[in-house]
């Protein structure tokens, strides 16, 4: 068994509650606004904003990947907490629903472009990035 100084605890929470928890992780890789960030045990404390992307969590037993849609990450004392707007494990992603969301977002984006509605355009772009992220993670 690994000693506690060589592992980190990872938890991912959303407004709906805890989505993921693992207290035997060796590596976590997240997509921040500044780029990809890898965290191992004993990493310096960090807080960073997340972009729409993936969270990859590795442990001796397995490797998990989640679609994470914004939020922030905080790490200190070998505890990594991701507070996300939404997050889904790869195996929990409903691909048909994500494809439907992508099509709706594309239609809204086209309509917003035609009417020059910048607020609607921004919302549609975010919805489209979220749908594409979920589809990409499901295929990973």
CATH architectural type of the largest domain: Sandwich
Write down the overall geometry.
elongated
Question: How do the helices and strands follow one another from N- to C-terminus?
Answer: EEEEEEEHH
CATH topology of the largest domain: ATP Synthase, domain 1
CATH class placement of the largest domain = Mainly Beta
Rg over alpha carbons:
17 Å
Helix content: 25-40%
- Domain unit count: 2
Structural class computed from helices and strand pairing: alpha+beta
Q: Termini separation (Å)?
A: 30 Å
What average pLDDT do the residues reach?
91
- The CATH homologous superfamily of the largest domain is termed F0F1 ATP synthase delta/epsilon subunit, N-terminal
**Order of strands across the main sheet:** 1-2-4-5-6
Number of strand segments: 7
Helix count equals 2
- Proportion of strand residues: over 45%
Subunit arrangement of the protein: single chain
Q: Biggest β-sheet, characterized? A: 5 strands, mixed, barrel
Low-confidence stretches: none
What would you say this structure looks like, in words?
This protein has 140 residues and is of the alpha+beta class. It has two domains: 4-90, F0F1 ATP synthase delta/epsilon subunit, N-terminal (ATP Synthase, domain 1, Sandwich); 94-139, Single alpha-helices involved in coiled-coils or other helix-helix interfaces, CATH 1.20.5. The protein has helices spanning 95-115, 118-139; strands spanning 8-14, 17-32, 35-39, 46-59, 63-76, 79-84, 87-89. It is elongated and about 55 Å long.
């Amino acid at each position: 068994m690994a000693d506690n100084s060589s592992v980190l605890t990872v938890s991912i929470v959303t407004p709906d509650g805890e989505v993921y928890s693992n207290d035997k992780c060796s590596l976590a890789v997240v997509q921040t606004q500044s780029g990809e960030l890898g965290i191992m045990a004993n990493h310096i404390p960090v807080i960073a904003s997340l972009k729409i992307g993936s969270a990859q969590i590795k442990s001796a037993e397995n490797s998990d990947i989640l679609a994470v849609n914004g939020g922030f990450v905080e790490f200190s004392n070998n505890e990594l907490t991701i507070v996300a707007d939404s997050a889904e494990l790869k195996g929990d992603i409903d691909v048909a629903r994500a494809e439907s969301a992508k099509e709706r977002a594309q239609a809204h984006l086209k309509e917003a472009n035609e009417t020059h509605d910048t607020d609607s355009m921004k919302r549609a772009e975010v919805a489209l990035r979220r749908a594409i992220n979920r589809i990409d993670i499901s295929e990973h």
